[in-house]
Sequence to fold (419 residues):
Amino acid sequence: MGVLQLFVVALMPVLKVLIVTAVGLFLALERINLLSAESRKYLNNLVFYVFNTSLIVSNLSDTVTAESFATLWFMPLNILITFILGSILAWVLIQLTRAPQNIRSLIIGTCSAGNLGNLLLIILPAVCDETNSPFGDSTTCAQYGKEYASLSMAVGAIYIWFYVYTIMRISAEMRTDGTDGNSPSSTLTAEEDSSGSVPGTLTETLLVMEGPSDHDQGFGRQELPPVESPRRTKVSCFSRVRQRISNTLKLIDMKKLLAPSTIAAIIGFFIGIVSPIRKLLIGSSAPLRVVYSSTAFLGQVAVPCITLIIGANLLQGLKGSGVGAFVIIGVIVIRYIIMPLIGIGIVKGMHSLGMVGSDPLYIFTLLLQYALPPAMNVGTITQLLQTGQSECSVILMWTYVVAAFTLTFWSTVFLWLVA
Fold:
């Protein structure tokens, strides 16, 4: 297959995304106002709680089984690598640009979390439907593509809510409290917490309250160091461990970490892997097949709705914010130049070691995970935390505009590598 044919195959799904995104942007214009800020809020809630949840459950339970998950074990690891790599590069960008404190966690989120589900659910089937596709029969290709996109979407959602949401929430709380970790009070508190000291005994407290005696002031009595009993040492160690566990749990908001998409991924994995439950729900003779078909029906609405919301949210980014140009350029360079190049080395290296199999569509999916624009869930997180919404809109707007060209370019390169 020639380069021009590969380019056309790669361009079609990107154009599909662009057209729906442009429709969402058009509907959000003030003259049309069908996707106003209030309308987007309600639609976003429907997508977040109903449509996207149904999509994850139905796709995972239908496509992922215990056998297939065993062969696709590298994909969760590959996605984890994209998060780690993006976080490291984001830290470098923050140091180089000296980004303000209020957008540092946002930079980490946009650099580490890619749109691992919705775009793949559009791109992979569209590539399979092309007559010049290098992946063989379109029906079989679409089936496997749906499986790869579903697993990518589920794993990505878990990572986003367990990692990106946590760091963005902690950053938002620090700004709300007015602490940056550099003040004397915060330093003192950190030292006290790390020492793990426990309150003194009643005798020590009384001695402090009484103050030094006359005898002590006149002669400077030499005091022996306190001797702790073994039992007290054990109690102190136990108190330190308990205090550290308590401090760690305070940083974790389990209610938000168990977001609907995370719960949906767990349920989908459970249904798909546990064969008896799978037979109850999935299949033409399954007793509860109407439950699965209804869930899948609701899930079909998720992708177009999410794409419309992407376009509508970009309108806010057109109005501008305080994000510097170098920060935006840095995020674009990280997501569309550095990460895809490193991703080619990682995936091709794993392929040469025989760790990713020989399915070209699977390898193409792994490569594509390094070249995707930031996840829209980052914008959802800023809306939940009520912070950084305008800054996030600007970053998403420019990264998605540039993605129209970079996705086509990298898809062509990846198709050439696996063809």
